[in-house]
Every structure is written in C-alpha cells, then in structure tokens.
Amino acid sequence: MWSVTGISAVLGFMLTVQITSKPQASPAVLSSYLDLRTQLLEQMQQQQVLDKEIAKENAQLDQFKASNGNTEDLKKALENDAQTVSAEAGMMPLAGPGISISIQDNPNLPFVADYAGKFQQYSDQEISQIVNDLFANGAKAISINGQRLVTTSSIRLVSGLGGFSTLQINTYPVSMPYVISAVGNVDLMQAVINVKQVVTLLNLMQEDCLITVHPEANGITVPGYHGPLPGTWAKEVNHS
Amino acid sequence: MIWLPVLGLIVGVAIGFVTNVTIPIAYSSYLSIAILAALDTVFGGVRASLEKSFDGAVFLSGFFFNTLVAALLAYIGVQLGVDLYLAAVVAFGVRLFQNIAVIRRILFNRVGHRHQRS
C-alpha cells in the first residue's frame, strides 16, 4: 500500500508540474495583441479626423453651390478656401502656447571625448530628430531661426570648401544660436524632450540647450512660410 | 486503507504547487506521455490489488520503467521525425481503458455478491 501511496504522490507531482507548465499568454502574443489594439485605435482616430474633413469639405461644397451665380459670395467662399489651404500649408503665422529650444556652443561645458564636437558634425540630424519628436508629440507648427517648417522643408548641413559646415533650413543658411520654436501641446513636448534627454545629450556635446516654456495663449509665434512654393521653378507638363 | 493513495496524490499535488517546478514547453510532451504511462501503471496496480495479485516490486518497476520508456519513445520519435509517441498513447490508452473496464466489473461483481448475501 505504501508503494501505491508513493506512486500516487509522484503522479500528483507530475500532474501538477505538467499543468503549471502549460504555456500562459506569451509576451509575443500579448505584444502583438497590444500592437493590434494600438493600430485599431490609431485607425479609429484617423477615421474621425477624416470624417471631420469630409464634413468640412461638404460644407464648403454646399457654400459653393449656394453661391452659384452670386459672384460676391463665390469670391468670399474662394477666399475662405484659400485662407484655409494657406493655413494648412503653413503659409500663415501661428500663435499659441509652445516652447522654444535654444542651442548654442559652449566650450566651457565639460569635455567628453566621445561626444565633444559631434553636434557640429551632425547638427542637421540632431535638429531633425528634435523636430520629429516635437511633431510626433503635440507640436502643430515649428520654425527654426524664423524658418517655418512645412512639408517640403529641408534641414541640411552643407559643407564648404574650407571645411566649414553651415546649417540650412529651407535652403536658408542659419547660424547659432539655433532657436526651435514650436506651437502646440506644451506638456507633451516638454515630456518628449525630457524622455529623450535632449538637454543632457546636447550638454555632452558641449552645447547649451535652453528650453523656455510659454504656456500662455499667445505665448509663442511661429512665422508663416515665405519660401518658394513647389510650382515656382518647375511647372507641370501639359500633354493635352 | 484506500485513503492512503488519495493522501499521497494530494501530497504530490501540494508539493508540485509549493515547489512551483515548471518544465520547458519543449519537454512538456514527454511529461504528458510519462503521465499517461504512470496512470496506466496506477490503474494496473489497482486492478491487481482487486484481483489479489498485487506485487509491489512489479508495480514500482512498472511505474518507473513504463514512464521512462514512454518519455524515451517520445524523444526518439522527435529525433527521427516520426510521431512515435502515438504508439505509446495508443498502447497505454488501450490498456488504461481495459484496466478501468476490469476494475469496474470487479466492483460490480462485489456489489452484486453483497446484495445476494443480504
């Protein structure tokens, strides 16, 4: 009987081990589920935005239809349309709460061999990264040294014959201090700058990074884009 | 004395939960087949004891030998790419149900005898 008891105990142990070793929801499965959920939420938000856009366009269409034959109304509607498009394209100056980030060389900061001088070599990439983070986290409009960033904007580091590099924003050369002005959700923008340790990294590169928060309603103004538009130099070829 | 094996089972389950031993998922199938072999042996032991032919040494050796061979068979099957564990599943499954059927008949007969006596 003792042998049966012992074997029963072993069997019970084996059964428990087998049951408790059953694969639970694995991290990979959980991760893909979360990814899917995030994607779904994003799609739903995007749908809401698009629905609003459709409603807006329909309202505009109604306005055009209503002004059919009335030149004054049609002109007004077209002017409204032009203003909306202009604002969306970044041609209009914007004001609102925001932050400004000022970056300037400071040789008095501690010298760290791995980082010192890197900003001069990669300032375009560093500034692009900051701008991308800001746009991804609440920024509605950004300018760098007064140059408004729009869809066709460029941030380039151009090297000359003497080995000096110049940062160009929208092909306009800019010099230090580089001032990034961003209008948008101040909390989110501040949060991403903290999370990405922008100030610490720039300090390591011997760059001063001064962040000024302007939470008031008209705290910061971002100028409109005044550079050449895509159709300025190149025209579409009409084959018809 | 039927409570002793039940107590053993409870103790085994408790030890399993307390020690919280887990085995890698890859070896889970080997343990499954080993558990099937163990169950077959236990039911064989119950049957033997009901038939008054229980032998402790045969029971113990059968338990460990069958369990190990079943797990080994499954392992070899994986190495060869042949589902050899199915052979063990079928063999132990058939024996398990045969043993259960015999146990059931013996118990029915005993109950029937008691009714006849009373």
Q: How would you concisely characterize the structure shown here?
A:
Helix content of chain A is 48%, strand content 21%. Chain A is an alpha+beta fold. In chain A, helix 2 packs antiparallel against helix 3 and helix 4 (118-136) packs across helix 5.
Write the layout of secondary structure elements.
The complex is a heterodimer of chains A (240) and B (118).
Chain A: H1 2-20, H2 27-66, H3 71-89, E1 94-96, E2 98-105, H4 118-136, E3 139-144, E4 147-148, E5 155-159, E6 165-169, E7 172-174, E8 178-184, H5 186-195, H6 198-204, E9 207-214, E10 220-222
Antiparallel strand pairs in A: 1-10, 2-8, 2-9, 3-4, 3-8, 5-6, 6-7
Helix pairs in contact in A: 2-3, 4-5
Chain B: H1 3-19, H2 28-50, H3 56-80, H4 85-117
Helix pairs in contact in B: 2-3, 2-4
Tell me which oligomeric state these chains represent.
heterodimer
Gyration radius over CA of chain A: 28 Å
Low-confidence stretches of chain A: none
Mean pLDDT of chain A: 85
Gap between N and C termini of chain A: 100 Å
CATH topology of the largest domain in chain A: Alpha-Beta Plaits
Round the mean pLDDT of chain B to the nearest integer and report it.
84
Shape of chain A: flat
